[in-house]
C-alpha cells in the first residue's frame, strides 16, 4: 500500500511538470503587447515596463523564464500580477469560495443523481424510471450557461427568491443555486450510470443467491447490491471534480462569484497571464489526487482489488 | 427447424453487430424523431435560404428590439436585424463545429489509441501521459487559454478561419478521451488468437492495425462519438457566449445569446429563440447518441 502510494505520487510528477510547461508556453506566448492598455490611454512609462520585464524576465529565452518560474513556485512564491497584487493572496481569497461551490455541487450530484439512479434502476420501466429518463435527457440538452442564465433570470429577477449576483462573502445559502447549475450535467450522467449499473447487477448471481438464502430485501439491496455498484459511480464522481472546477468558470462568471474560475477568466481576458499557470496547475493537481483517492476507495469497496 | 436452417444457408452474409444494431434502431421511435430533427437542422445549415429570404446582416437601427410580429416572427435585435433570419443562419456554425470536431476528434483519437495499444512501450507511455495532461486541464479553461492565445490572429480573420480555430481547440482537448477508449478496446484483442495467427501468417503492422484491431475499436468509438456531437455544439455555444469562441460577424446561437444577455429584462424573446434552437439541436443529438449506444452496446439495455 505505501509503495503503491509512493509510485503513484512519483508518476504524477512528470505529468505536473508537463502541464505547467505546456500551459506556460501557451500562456506566455500570448500575442500582443502585455502592457497595451495597462496604463490608461497613454503608453506605459518605461520604468514600469522595465520593472515588469525584470520580475517576469519577459526578455529572456523561454526556457530560462520557465526554470526561474518553477524554482520560485516550488518555494511558494508565485509572483505579482501586473497590478502588483501577490498571486498567492488572490488564490488564497478565491480558493475557499470555489471549494464551497464545488462541495454544494458535489452534494447535489450525490444526493439527487445517485438516489434517482438507484431507485430507477431498482424499478425499471416504472413511472419514476421514465420520469428520471426524461429529466436526464433534458438536463443533458441544456448547456450550463443557458441553465445558469435562465435560473438567474427566473429566480433572481422575476421571482426575487435569490440575489442574481452573489456577494463577496459567498455564503453557503447564496451558492445553492449556482452549485445546482454546475452539477446538473453530471447529476444526469450519474443517474444514468447508477441506473444501468444497478439494473445490471440486479441480475447477478450473487443477488439471486442472497435472495435464495432468505435475506431481507433491504439487506440484499443495501449491502450486496449497492456496495458492488459503487465502483463505477465513485469513478465518475472522482473524474468530475475537474468538471466542477470548469463549471466554475462559466457559472462564476454568470453569478458574479469571485472564485478561481472567475479569477482566471478575468486575467486571461486582460492578457495578464500571471494567475493562469498556478491555477491551472492547481486544477491538474486536484485531478491527479482525486484519481488517486478514487483508486484507493476501490480497495475499500472491493477486497479483491489489491495494490502491489 | 429445417426451414430455418435453409433460410440461414441461403443468406450469403453472416449477420453481424451492425445488422443487429440497425434492426434495433429501426424499431425505436426516438431514433426516427431525432434523425428527422437532425436532418432538418442540417438542411437549415446547408441551405438557410430555404427557410428565410431575409438577410441576417441587414440592420435597421430605427426598429431596434421590436417585438415579434407577423412580419418579423422572432422580432428584431438591438441592431434591428431579423432574429428569425439570424437564428436560421446560426444553425450553420453549430452544425459545422459539432460534426467537424467530432469527426476529427474520433479520427485522431482512434488512430492514436490504436497506435498506443499496438506499439506499447514508450509510444504508449507518451500518448497516455500527454492525454492525462490534457484531460487534467479543465475543458473550458483550456479552451479559453488556447483561444485567447490566438485571439490576435483571429481579429479580422474570416469566418472559416475562426471556425477552424474553434474546431481545432475542441479537438486538441478531447482526443485523449477517444484515444483512451480506442486503446483499451484495441488492447483487449491485441493478444487474441486471430491476431497472433495473422501475425504468424506474415501480416504487417498496418494490416493488423486496420484489418484486425480497427473493427473492434469502431463500436465503442462510434458510441462515444455520437454523444460527443451534442457536447461539442454545447461547448461551441458556451465559448461563444464567453466571448472567446465564434464572434461577430459570424452568425451563431452562442453569439446571439451572448449579445441578447444584457437586455434579458427588456426583451426576453431575443434570448429565448436562439436558446430554444440550441437546446433542441443538442437534445436531438443526445437522443440519437442514446439510441445508437443502446443499439451497439446491448449490455447496457
From TrEMBL, chain A:
Coiled coil segments of this chain: none
Predominant localisation class: membrane
Membrane topology type: Multi-pass membrane protein
Taxonomic superkingdom: Bacteria
Keyword Transport: yes
Keyword terms: Cell membrane, Membrane, Transmembrane, Transmembrane helix, Transport
Subcellular location field: Cell membrane
Membrane-spanning intervals of the chain: 12-30, 97-119, 131-155, 175-194, 233-255, 275-301
InterPro entries (UniProt xref): BPD_transp_1_N, MetI-like, MetI-like_sf
PANTHER family: DIPEPTIDE TRANSPORT SYSTEM PERMEASE PROTEIN DPPB-RELATED, DIPEPTIDE-TRANSPORT INTEGRAL MEMBRANE PROTEIN ABC TRANSPORTER DPPB-RELATED
Protein name: ABC transporter permease
Organism, scientific name: Nocardiopsis coralli
From TrEMBL, chain B:
Main location group: membrane
Record-linked Pfam families: BPD_transp_1, OppC_N
Coiled coil: none
Subcellular location: Cell membrane
Domain ABC transmembrane type-1, chain residue ranges per copy: 91-289
PROSITE patterns tied to this protein: ABC_TM1
Membrane topology annotation: Multi-pass membrane protein
Bilayer-crossing regions: 30-51, 95-121, 133-153, 159-178, 217-246, 266-292
Protein's UniProt keywords contain Hydrolase: no
UniProt keyword terms in alphabetical order: Cell membrane, Membrane, Transmembrane, Transmembrane helix, Transport
PANTHER family: ABC TRANSPORTER PERMEASE PROTEIN, OLIGOPEPTIDE TRANSPORT SYSTEM PERMEASE PROTEIN APPC
Family, as annotated: Belongs to the binding-protein-dependent transport system permease family.
Protein name: ABC transporter permease
Record organism: Nocardiopsis coralli
Amino acid at each position: 500500500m505505501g509503495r503503491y502510494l509512493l509510485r503513484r505520487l512519483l508518476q504524477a510528477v512528470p505529468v505536473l511538470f508537463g502541464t505547467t510547461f505546456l500551459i506556460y508556453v501557451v500562456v506566455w506566448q500570448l500575442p500582443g503587447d502585455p502592457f497595451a492598455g495597462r496604463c490608461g490611454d497613454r503608453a506605459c512609462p518605461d520604468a514600469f515596463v522595465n520593472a515588469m520585464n525584470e520580475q517576469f524576465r519577459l526578455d529572456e529565452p523561454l526556457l530560462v523564464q520557465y526554470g526561474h518560474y518553477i524554482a520560485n513556485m516550488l518555494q511558494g512564491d508565485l509572483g505579482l500580477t501586473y497590478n502588483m497584487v501577490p498571486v498567492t493572496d488572490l488564490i488564497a481569497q478565491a480558493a475557499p469560495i470555489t471549494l464551497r461551490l464545488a462541495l454544494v455541487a458535489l452534494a447535489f450530484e450525490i444526493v439527487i443523481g445517485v438516489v434517482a439512479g438507484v431507485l430507477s434502476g431498482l424499478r425499471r420501466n416504472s413511472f419514476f424510471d421514465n420520469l428520471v429518463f426524461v429529466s436526464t435527457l433534458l438536463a443533458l440538452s441544456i448547456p450550463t450557461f443557458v441553465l445558469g442564465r435562465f435560473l438567474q433570470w427566473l429566480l433572481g429577477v422575476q421571482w426575487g427568491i435569490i440575489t442574481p449576483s452573489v456577494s463577496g462573502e459567498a455564503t453557503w445559502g447564496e451558492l445553492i443555486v449556482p452549485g445546482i447549475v454546475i452539477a446538473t450535467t453530471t447529476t444526469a450522467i450519474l443517474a444514468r450510470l447508477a441506473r444501468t449499473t444497478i439494473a445490471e447487477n440486479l441480475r447477478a448471481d450473487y443477488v439471486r443467491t442472497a435472495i435464495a438464502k432468505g435475506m431481507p430485501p433491504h439487506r440484499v439491496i443495501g449491502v450486496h447490491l449497492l456496495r458492488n455498484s459503487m465502483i463505477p459511480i465513485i469513478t465518475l464522481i472522482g473524474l468530475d471534480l475537474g468538471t466542477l472546477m470548469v463549471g466554475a468558470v462559466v457559472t462564476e462568471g454568470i453569478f458574479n462569484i469571485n472564485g478561481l474560475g472567475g479569477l482566471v477568466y478575468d486575467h486571461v481576458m486582460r492578457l495578464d497571464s500571471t494567475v493562469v499557470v498556478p491555477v491551472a496547475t492547481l486544477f491538474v493537481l486536484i485531478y491527479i489526487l482525486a484519481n488517486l483517492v478514487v483508486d484507493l476507495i476501490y480497495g475499500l469497496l472491493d477486497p479483491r482489488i489489491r495494490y502491489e | 427447424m429445417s426451414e430455418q436452417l435453409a433460410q440461414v444457408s441461403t443468406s450469403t452474409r453472416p449477420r453481424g453487430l451492425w445488422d443487429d444494431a440497425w434492426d434495433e434502431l429501426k424499431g425505436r421511435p426516438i431514433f426516427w424523431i431525432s434523425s428527422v430533427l437532425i436532418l432538418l437542422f442540417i438542411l437549415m445549415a446547408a441551405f438557410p435560404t430555404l427557410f428565410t429570404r431575409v438577410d441576417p446582416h441587414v440592420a435597421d437601427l430605427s426598429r431596434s428590439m421590436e417585438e415579434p410580429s407577423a412580419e418579423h416572427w422572432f422580432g428584431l435585435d438591438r441592431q434591428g436585424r431579423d432574429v428569425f433570419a439570424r437564428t436560421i443562419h446560426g444553425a450553420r456554425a453549430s452544425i459545422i463545429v459539432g460534426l467537424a470536431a467530432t469527426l476529427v476528434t474520433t479520427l485522431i483519437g482512434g488512430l492514436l489509441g490504436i497506435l498506443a495499444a499496438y506499439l506499447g512501450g514508450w509510444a504508449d507511455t507518451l500518448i497516455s501521459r500527454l492525454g492525462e495532461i490534457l484531460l487534467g486541464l479543465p475543458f473550458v479553461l483550456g479552451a479559453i487559454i488556447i483561444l485567447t492565445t490566438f485571439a490576435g490572429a483571429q481579429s479580422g480573420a474570416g469566418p472559416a478561419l475562426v471556425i477552424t480555430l474553434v474546431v481545432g481547440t475542441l479537438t486538441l482537448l478531447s482526443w485523449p478521451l477517444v484515444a483512451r477508449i480506442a486503446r483499451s478496446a484495441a488492447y483487449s484483442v491485441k493478444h487474441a488468437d486471430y491476431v497472433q495467427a495473422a501475425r504468424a501468417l506474415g501480416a504487417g503492422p498496418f494490416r493488423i492495425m486496420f484489418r484486425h484491431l480497427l473493427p473492434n475499436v469502431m463500436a465503442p468509438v462510434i458510441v462515444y462519438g455520437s454523444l460527443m456531437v451534442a457536447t461539442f455544439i454545447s461547448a461551441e455555444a458556451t465559448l461563444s457566449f464567453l466571448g472567446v469562441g465564434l464572434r461577430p460577424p459570424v452568425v451563431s446561437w452562442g453569439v446571439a445569446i451572448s449579445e441578447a444577455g444584457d437586455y434579458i429584462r427588456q426583451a426576453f424573446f431575443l434570448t429565448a429563440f436562439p436558446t430554444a434552437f440550441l437546446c433542441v439541436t443538442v437534445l436531438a443529438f443526445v437522443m440519437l447518441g442514446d439510441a445508437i449506444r443502446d443499439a451497439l452496446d446491448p449490455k447496457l439495455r
